[in-house]
Amino acid sequence: MTEPDDREAQDPTEISHWRPLRRLLDALDDDIARLYEQLDVRGVRPRHTMPLIRLSRRGPMTIRQLAQSLEVTHSAMSQTVSALRNEGLVTTRPGADARTREVTLTEKGSELVPFLEAEWRATEEAVAELDAEIPYPLTRVVHDIERELAREPFRDRITRHLRSVRQPPQ
């Protein structure tokens, strides 16, 4: 029997090219959440900002419409709407058919939107400022990655690297 090489013997989860980016994004979101706490904005997480602003700008939407407009899954938006409803920021009611729920801002949610829009704009300005301070702007890196993924999708790249691996049991 042959010994596995060092790479095979190592726990693969100890190596990650994505983890630093995820940690960075989490840290940025945590700073926004701390800002909300400092300003006594309760019941809102950074991930709630987009749906609240979108509902304010476009009016009531079904969970599916809201999810599609924000490019997230229906499941993720359903969880977000549930959290927002628990905080009294939105209400839901049956939609046009029994399978849909329409989401509407409450007065409390509407009152928060001007602050959330101002915070969104300030955050975008801070990100643009940071982007200009680094030698290779993250926005350029993201566009370059998107271009290369259009050329060869991520799933295809993973599949190419899995060719030598035995298929999972059925």
CATH fold annotation of the largest domain:
Arc Repressor Mutant, subunit A
Largest sheet: 3 strands, antiparallel
- Our measurement of the CA-to-CA distance between the termini, rounded to an integer number of angstroms, reads 26 Å
Structural domain tally? 2
Order of helices and strands: HHHEHHEEHHH
Low-confidence segments, given as residue ranges, are none
Determine Rg (CA atoms, Å): 21 Å
Strand order of the largest sheet: 1-3-2
The 3D shape can be described as globular
Strand content: 5-15%
CATH superfamily of the largest domain: Winged helix-like DNA-binding domain superfamily/Winged helix DNA-binding domain
SSE class:
mainly alpha
**Subunit arrangement of the protein:** single chain
Number of helices: 8
CATH level 1 name of the largest domain? Mainly Alpha
Percent of residues in helices comes to 55-70%
The chain-level mean pLDDT equals 91
Tally the beta strands: 3
From the coordinates shown, what is the CATH architecture of the largest domain? Orthogonal Bundle
Keywords: DNA-binding, Transcription, Transcription regulation
Domain HTH marR-type: 14-150
InterPro entries: ArsR-like_HTH, HTH_MarR-typ, MarR/SlyA-like, WH-like_DNA-bd_sf, WH_DNA-bd_sf
Pfam family, one: MarR_2
